[in-house]
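User: Design a sequence. Structure:
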């Protein structure tokens, strides 16, 4: 199973957003301290990140805003026509049946980004799948994403309480450059970053995404030295 830039736990997701924006010089020390002193919820932090879209592209903090569209980023409908077809497809009954989705018949349609769920924690599910089902899990993050940032995923991965078998290690792409970093946990969990990738990792860094996912599917370690 693989999860890319996913919301995993509302507590760690919220804290990770604030810490990421502060560590990347997007919010001030004062704002960071004031937010951390309040009741920190992921919804509040995601709203904060979305509000900053008027200033920067929080889906990809490394990308400068264009004159025509402040939301244009790799993987958005501005440069990916496939996005326009995703929502209608995911709401088709036959598609949901094939994906074993919406078995509880939710009263609202599927959306790419929705705020119907205010609190969440899928960490117990991940831990149960690893411990009970022997399922290998890859959780990866684009390190340029400010909406569901790498800090949130790091905090959530640590919260699982699994032993580390391979600590923070760089992995290399075919261009002999660092493609990201990985940490491997006991039981079959791999946490990896994709260097320079935005919120939609495959759209913004397709070659590096193919490499990290391909190695995971083949149950092979990523190259830790240039090749």
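Assistant: Done.
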């Amino acid at each position: 199973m693989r999860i890319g830039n996913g919301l995993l736990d509302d507590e760690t997701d919220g804290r990770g957003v604030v810490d990421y924006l502060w560590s990347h010089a997007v919010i001030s020390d004062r704002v960071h301290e004031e937010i951390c002193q309040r009741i920190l919820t992921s919804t509040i932090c995601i709203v904060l990140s979305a509000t900053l879209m008027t200033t920067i592209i929080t889906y990809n903090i490394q990308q400068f805003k264009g004159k025509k569209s402040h939301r244009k980023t790799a993987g958005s409908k501005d440069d990916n026509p496939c996005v326009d077809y995703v929502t209608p497809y995911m709401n088709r009954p036959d598609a949901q049946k094939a994906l074993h989705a919406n078995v509880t018949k939710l009263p609202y349609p599927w959306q790419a980004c929705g705020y119907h769920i205010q609190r969440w924690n899928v960490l117990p599910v991940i831990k149960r799948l690893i411990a009970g089902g022997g399922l290998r899990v890859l959780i990866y993050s684009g390190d340029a994403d400010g909406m569901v940032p790498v800090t949130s995923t790091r905090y959530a991965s640590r919260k699982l309480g699994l032993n580390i078998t391979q600590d923070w290690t760089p992995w290399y792409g075919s261009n002999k450059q660092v493609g990201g970093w990985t940490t491997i946990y006991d039981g079959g969990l791999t946490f990896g970053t994709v260097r320079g990738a935005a919120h939609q990792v495959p759209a913004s860094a397709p070659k590096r995404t193919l490499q990290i996912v391909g190695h995971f599917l083949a149950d092979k370690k990523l190259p830790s030295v240039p090749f």
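The longest helix spans residues 10-23. Confidence is low (pLDDT under 50) at residues 67-78.
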